[in-house]
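Let us work through a complete example step by step.
Step 1: write down the sequence.
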Amino acid sequence: MKKIICKREYDTENASLVKKVTVGEFGEPDGYEESLYQTEGGLYFLYVNGGEESPYPKENIKSISKAKAAEWLKDKE
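Step 2: predict the structure and record it as tokens.
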């Protein structure tokens, strides 16, 4: 997926996957996935996607700071 946020391109195809977390099983309405990526330029973003009853009922990309990325990683250990 690709998204432009504040004139910056975030693309899951061209960024490095840092960590992926899956909650539930594929196809469950409340299941979802969060994937942390880092761009070549050092920017971080979360790719999120899930079932219709999950926190992420629509596929999306959210840009996050380096500090928030570190916090997310710590929370997902």
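Step 3: interpret the result. Residues 2-67 form one domain.
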